[in-house]
Amino acid sequence: MKITVVSPVYNECEVLPYLFDALPKVLAKLSDNYEIILVNDGSTDGSDQVIRQRAELDSRIKLVSFSRNFGQQAAITAGLDCASGDIIVVMDCDMQDPPEMLAPMLDKIHEGYDVVSCRRTGRDGESIFKRWSSTAFYQVMRLGIDKRIPAEVGDFRMYTRRAADALCAFREQHRFMRGVVAWLGLKEAILPFHRPARAAGQTKYPVSKLIKLAWTAISSSSPVPLKASSYLGATLGDYVGRVFEESKHRPLYVVSEVCNVDQSPDQPRALWLDATDGTSPIRIEPRVYGPIALPSSPRKVG
Ligand code: UDP
Ligand code: MG
Questions:
Q1: Which of 71, 258, 282, 283 lies in the 20 to 30 Å Cα band around 192?
Q2: Which phi and psi angles does 86 have, rounded to 5°?
Q3: Helix, coil or strand: residue 142
Q4: Nearest CA to ligand 1 atom 13
């Protein structure tokens, strides 16, 4: 049984030595046949150099280097495309996805699951904003977009070969792996874990990138925002229609007859027709907005 680890790398030269130290040891205990595919997502800090040096010493360590930064989701896709294992793991390279989880994940695969996902029950080393925005993100996704997307589950997952093949069949430009996995509906186990702080370096997800990923997640998983915007468009259209109606300055009402009313109220935009005795033709004066004086002797009831 061959295990492939796929890990996206973006400016992580500080953290890679920790990964190279820990991951091979864990994998060696699980299988004598494994590969680690590191997808360099356009790093500018020499991460590719660090990986290349390691790959020269160990052929199980493989490098796929992008020409520029295409994003984590594209890097994961490239890694899955190249994976030759029977079991495939996707994990971050900064040690926030602990290699020790691989053994219990593999147990779940042996139990018959196609996908084993890890749920973050706690997080270290992340700002309050990041934790808050992450919780809010999953709530929005689950309530408004796709309730199949499990809360607090990132891309740290183990797949069977057939699950990985199914994922590779999705070639959309704006992809959100978690949404695709949820859509596939494969048999999924979820294991809890406490997410440690990254071993070194800084997050590669500034707020702008987080927002972009969140929007990709929402827009690629559901037409709800598009529908909402067309409803909003219709609502705005209704407002414009009302302004148009208002611009006509039509009277608010037209009175054609009165009984026991001596005087028309002194209100603008009210059209009172000349109603003398009912025999004379009704005189419509559409452009008169103020009150028209009623005849001096209005009809009495009875
Ligand atoms: N990453 C990537 N491309 C990017 C941003 C991040 O390949 O444009 C990688 C990064 O090197 C790491 C993983 O994606 O392996 C998660 O990134 P990070 O740890 O910065 O995210 P966080 O854990 O802070 O959400
Ligand atoms: Mg991280």
A1: 71
A2: -85, -30
A3: helix
A4: 92
Is there a contact between 41 and 10 (Cβ–Cβ < 8 Å)? Answer: yes
Q: Kindly list the protein residues that place their beta carbon closer than 5 angstroms to ligand 2, a single-atom ion.
A: 92, 94, 96, 198
Digit-by-digit pLDDT tens for the chain (302 residues) are 999 999 999 999 999 999 999 999 999 999 999 999 999 999 999 999 999 999 999 999 999 999 999 999 999 999 999 999 999 999 999 999 999 999 999 999 999 999 999 999 999 998 888 889 889 999 988 888 888 999 999 999 999 999 999 999 999 888 889 999 999 999 999 999 999 999 999 999 988 998 988 888 888 888 888 888 888 888 888 889 888 888 888 888 887 777 778 777 777 888 877 755 554 444 444 444 455 555 555 554 44
- What does the domain layout of the chain look like in residue ranges? 3-127+148-204+251-284
Tell me which residue has its CA closest to atom 3 in ligand 1.
72
**Distance between CA atoms of 5 and 28, rounded to whole angstroms?**
12
Tell me the residue ranges of DSSP E strands in 140-278: 153-160, 188-195, 254-255, 271-272
pTM, 2 dp: 0.79
Q: State the distance from the centre of ligand 2 to the C-alpha of 94, rounded, in angstroms.
A: 6
Q: In terms of DSSP H, where are the helices of 112-255?
A: 128-140, 161-168, 177-184, 207-221, 224-247
Which of 39, 51, 72 maximizes ligand 1 atoms within 8 Å of its Cβ, making it the mutation to test the pocket?
72
| Collapsed DSSP state (helix, strand, coil) of residue 118 | strand
Q: Please work out whether the CB of residue 154 comes within 6 Å of at least one atom of ligand 1.
A: no
Closest residue by CA, ligand 1 atom 12: 92
CATH 3.30.43.10 fits 3-127+148-204+251-284, yes or no: no
Q: Which ligand is nearest to the CA of 93?
A: 1
Distance of CA 1 to the CA centre of its chain: 35
> Which residue, 88, 74, 82, is CA-closest to 170?
74
